[in-house]
Amino acid sequence: MSSESSKKLTQAAQADRHVLYQKSVQCPEAEVEFFEKTFKELRGRDALSIKEDFCGTAYLATEWCKGDPARTAIGVDYDEETLEWGQKNNVDAAGADVAERVTLINDDVRSVTEPAVDIVCAFNFSYCLFEERDEMIDYFAQARASLKDDGLLILDLFGGTECADVLEEETEIEDEGATYVWEHVSFNPINNHMACAIHFDFDDGSRLENAFTYEWRLWAIPEVREMLEDAGYKNVRVYWERYEDSEDDEDEMEGTGEYYETTEAENQESWMIYIVAEPV
Question: Model pTM?
């Protein structure tokens, strides 16, 4: 494309949705830190291998391997185009030393159980696409088959009083001249099915509409814990984010990015937690 032609394109037309997603949604450094701390506390040793289910661009798998030359990662996703993007822009871009320790597999996450790893993770609520109880238990059982005897399954989950509302939330993306828009498109209280979408608005007035769309079930924490137990896990732990007074608004609380294990918490408009399960 000539420079003259590209000048005529809007920012939305020129944008890379995967770059925008990684900058607005993901924080692999924090997740790696949680892995390191939690695994060491519960298992008394360092974790060295992970399997990232629904890995998308394998951003987390790549960052995991960057942290220690002894680490390995397997990334599994059904979307071939996204995997190819991640291979080129994350895995290969990290250099040969990292790339040779990251294996990406284009397959159903339930079909990949070898080799056994220290940690299996499913983040960004991806596993919630399994909307039936039996289907979810089957996934959890297959994830357990992927773990070493002292391995851990680590999930994230979101909820809160506003999750059933139809709404939009906006967050500016630094350095991109763009705004991340998270939309709750619809929610059915009869079966907790919800549709969500991600859009990106740009400074020139253009919009990347439906850059990503999702159809899933809003599972509750007790439901996930019970299904994990039915799939053969024990000691299913919940890690809640620590909050403190906001520096900008004395009437507001803001998350610290630090998570602690708890059995009781006060509900909020919106929350995100980690769930950690041990295989029997």
Answer: 0.93
As to burial, measured by CB atoms within 10 angstroms (0-12 exposed, 13-18 middle, 19+ buried), residue 256 is: exposed
Determine contact, residues 153/144, Cβ cutoff 8 Å.
Answer: yes
Structure tokens at 150: 């002292």
Closest CA relative to residue 124, chosen from 163, 157, 91: 157
At 100, list the tokens.
Answer: 């040779």
Contact assessment for residue 64 and residue 56, using Cβ atoms and an 8 Å cutoff: no
Token pair belonging to 255? 């998350």
Rg value, the chain, Cα: 19
Q: Tell me the per-residue pLDDT of 114-147, one tens digit each, with 9 for 90 and over.
A: 999 999 999 999 999 999 999 999 999 999 999 9
Sort strands 72-77 and 102-106 into parallel, antiparallel or unpaired.
Answer: parallel
DSSP labels, 40-63: HHHHSS---EEEEET-TT-HHHHH
**Amino acid letter, 273:** I
Give the model confidence (pLDDT) of 89-116 as tens digits: 999 999 999 999 999 999 999 999 999 9
**What is the distance between the alpha carbons of residues 280 and 149, in angstroms, rounded to a whole number?**
8
Strands 271-279 and 147-159 turn out to be antiparallel
| Cβ proximity of 217 and 131 under 8 Å | yes
Looking only at Cα atoms, what is the longest distance across the chain? 62
Identify the residue whose tokens are 């995967």: 18
Contact assessment for residue 174 and residue 166, using Cβ atoms and an 8 Å cutoff: no
Across the beta sheet with 49-53, the strand order is 102-106, 72-77, 49-53, 117-122, 147-159, 271-279, 233-245, 253-261
